[in-house]
Amino acid sequence: MSENEKPLKWLRKQDGEWEWAADYLRHRLDAEYMRRLKGDAFTRFATYENVVAAIRQIQEDRLDLVIRLQGAIRQRRYRSDSNGRKPRTFTLSKQTLSKLDSIAKRNNADETAVITALIEREGLAAEAERDYEKLLKESISRERKAAQQVAACLKEQRDEALKHAERYLQLLARWELMFPEEKPAAASDEEISKLVEPRIQDLKNALDYIAFMGDLTTERHK
Description:
Elements: H1 17-26, H2 31-36, H3 48-58, H4 63-79, H5 94-106, H6 111-178, H7 189-220
């Protein structure tokens, strides 16, 4: 590779940049000047190295053209997809354009920056709304699960109370069947309380245990 064909720091091989530069030069050099460049009409712009050699030759007597080429390449990169930007055309009303111009002047920015900022702000607002909806759904789901657990706990407590009631009703029914003509022996309230209180305490303990296990389950899912 000759010295003239060594890569230029400001001209890339990728993204079709050197081909674009070759086309730029073809449209700005007349036929007479083109014949002065090395190579023939088919090869002088056929490769990256040939384009580089031509640019180095051109800058000897047409430095202004090479400088304009560099500026055009910078503009192309700025507008290219690889820079993350694409040109777009919008039709806006005079009123909207007037407001856009006013906002741009007030913020000491160009119209593109204003539109970009508005779009980004709208994107952030939409994202915040999605996050809020997500949190709301999660909160509703947690509340629903908690309500279901409370309902399940109450059902267990009711079932336990019914189980105790059924057991004592069975005892009463058995006594009535065994002694249908007899009445229970008279007993004082104190004697009755001594028999009833342990049974009531058993029922309370069972219900408290169910409530305790329900609280543990609820805490685990918070």
